[in-house]
Amino acid sequence: MTGSTSHRHTFKSLTSDYTRSFGGVLVMVLPLSSVETTGTVAWALAAGALLFAVYGFNTILRHLGAVECNDTGISVSGLFRRSVAWTEVTDVQVRYFSTRRDGRKGWMQLVVKSPTASIRIESTLAGFTDIVGAAVDAANTKGIDLSSTTLGNAEVLGVKTGLFTSGNGSPCRIS
User: How much is the pTM?
Assistant: First the structure.
């Protein structure tokens, strides 16, 4: 990677998260305000509303934060600032989460770990593939073994890993 890049979530990429959060709070709060409920039902609806509100707050934090990626490391700004230097990386994982049984729809998540911090980035972030490439390069430079799942997901993104997965699932380095 050359230079420094800044990446932010766009409103368009988070629209479905905002919609789910608002809709969930609305569905939980409307019965509380319009129908007389028993104590147990009221507590359950209030707990549901709180969970959707926390989800909405997390979406706002992702929307306001930025991911900076450069030759020395990666950092996330916002309310909870974190940074990981590429020289301190201990693990890199690229995970895929499916929303359907057939695996067609879903999202990916990059996890970069060091002894002092852990950064999670979702594939809805613009420039996600470039960040995955930088993280995989850092892991290769340090000689960190990547899981076969991470290698497969990086390959789906078109990221060159310098590794391949053998028939038994173990990663092998290309010299």
Answer: 0.75
Residue 167 backbone phi and psi in degrees, to 5:
-60, -30
Residue 20, C-beta contacts closer than 8 angstroms, at least 6 positions apart? 52, 55
139-171 residues labelled b (16+ CB within 10 A) or e (exposed): bbeeeeebbbebbebbeebebebebebeeeeee
Separation of CA 151 from chain center: 17
Q: Domain boundaries in the chain?
A: 5-64, 68-173
Distance in angstroms (rounded) separating the CA atoms of residues 11 and 1? 27
Angstrom distance (rounded) from CA 112 to CA 93: 7
**pLDDT tens, residue by residue, 17-37:** 899 999 999 999 998 888 887
Candidates 2.30.29, 1.20.120, 2.60.120, 1.10.287; CATH matching 68-173: 2.30.29
- Residue 21 burial (CB count, 10 A): 21
